[in-house]
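The protein record passed on below.

***
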Amino acid sequence: MTITITPAASERMRQFLAGTPNAAGVRFGVKRTGCSGFGYVVDLADALDSDDQLVNVDGVPLIVDSKSLSLVDGTVIDFQRQGLNASFVFHNPNATGECGCGESFTVG
């Protein structure tokens, strides 16, 4: 499994982890949602679940559950600021389509 984190995303994740020193890492995955089928999940994880895989990406511990692995393999995670808005942005080679608002995606 390969996931890439841009320097901006890495910095933001490190800020979150520094604010919660007991966190096991950053959980990254997908859940069924939205009009296209899947939405991304990025959150701090308190612990690893039995079906989780821990991947160290540039010193950031990423935790990915087994159901999300094939859907996020190859994804590049970026963090972008536009005016007053800031968010993680995902470039996923597995996505075959996205909804109009960009909140969810489809896998072929």
Summary: The chain is about 15% helix and 50% strand. The helical segments are 7-19, 69-72. The longest strand covers residues 25-33.
